[in-house]
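Cross-check.
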Amino acid sequence: MTDVDETIALGADAIARVARALAELHYNQAIALTAAARLDDAVAHYEAALGLAPGWPEALDNLGALHAQRGQPDAAALALRAALAVDATRADTLYNLATVEFMIGGYADAAAHFAAAVAARPGFALALRGEAQARAALGETAAALGLAIQAAELDGGADACAYAAMLHLQAERPAEALRWATRAAALLDDAGPHSLVGAAHAALGDHAAALAAYGRAATLAPDRLEPHFNCAVMAEALLDFPAAIGHFRRAHRIDPDHRPALINLTRLLIDIGHDEPGELAACLERMLALDPDDPMARHLLDGVRGHVSAVAPRRYIAEMFDAVAADYDVMMLDRLGYQGPTLLTDALAALGVAPGGRALDLGCGSGLIGVALRPRVDWLAGVDLAPKMLALAEARGVYDRLDCADVVDHLRAGDDAFDLIVAGDVMIYLGDLAPVFAGVRARLTPGGLWLFTVEESPDDDVRLHPTGRYAHHRDYLARTLAAHGLETVRVAAGVLRVQAGEPVAGLVVAARAA
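Predicted model, tokenized:
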């Protein structure tokens, strides 16, 4: 080698060493800038480092993580894949790439890269949990559960145990969920793990234990809405209505726009009471501010303010009953002691009505009255506004025909005649009864019977309660029936149901077509 060649070689080596040193300076500066939250500057220094030292895996890995932190998943994935092109066994890089892919919804790719990270580093608990999340997102519940359990057993930390509990809850395995959630809560006395304990107890039907766990969560996070909301739900399940109202109030104060808390608070203030001056009206006004077209809020506010509308909005009725369809029978029979079927069949017996003929059940709901009526008639039809309630009625198999319609529209639209038309807890959603009485008269056979229940008003002809239900005076009923060719043949007092622990006074009215 000549002196010139040696000089060139020495210069090249020096340049390479200086370039590497400069690259390391840029790399370290990028780390410092990231710690200072100067992310754009950090990116520039990582790029400068890579310009001097192309293919540097650590710099590519950090740059990819930084792009992900800045919400640039495409750039992040590009840098991370470049790092893997240099060394495909880098567990941290595989993990970071999988995290980016999960972020953008590439769950299958994420699962594969999380698994590769575990293969590269056995016992990598975070990667196991990441794969569990990806498998869960893909709907692979069993695989997700197995991975989450492995991660929790390896990691032993509260977060891993809490995630295992959450997956077991989603898989409807509350006993296993409770085991992991209890372990998480023992490791970390925080609202999150205690809320999971509460959810597991609630799924197991232990409302008292659930309330205690949710209560601990609410104590630890007094300004977080969810623990108070959950406490309210459990307190109501335990029939501790004042406590339920208190927690719904707290949730509503934390977030005045949270509709579930607002709706449930409003419902309990109506059903149970304990409202402070002006509170119920304020809740309903807030509901209207959030949704000016909300028919329930508008109708209930009319009742609170003493305005008597002609009829409850159809959308309100349909949405209200569809919302409670799954729990309707238990709610009506067990919790509210609904007496409609018994009162109506007792009235038929008292009037000596012989079995047979064609009958129509107005506002048939889930079919509770249809079940009681079916043995007494040859043919039975039902009509209701709420599709989910009609599905329950159809499942009972007691109706020959079912229609989804407003009762007044249905009466006006048809021309077949009935020997008996009944309505239990339907007139309570109609203020002006003239249209329905006219429709009933048009569809009754001569001498046909019209049998219905109402809540009784002691003074006004028609009164709209804050419950959103109407009450009617006996004299109003008699006048309106007579005006439409219907002769009152029997009026009997009875208890329709229980409301806030108090019996709801009502009337069972029978009238015949003249």
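Residues 3-35 form the longest helix (33 residues). The first strand starts at residue 358 and ends at 362. Passed to J.P. for a second look.
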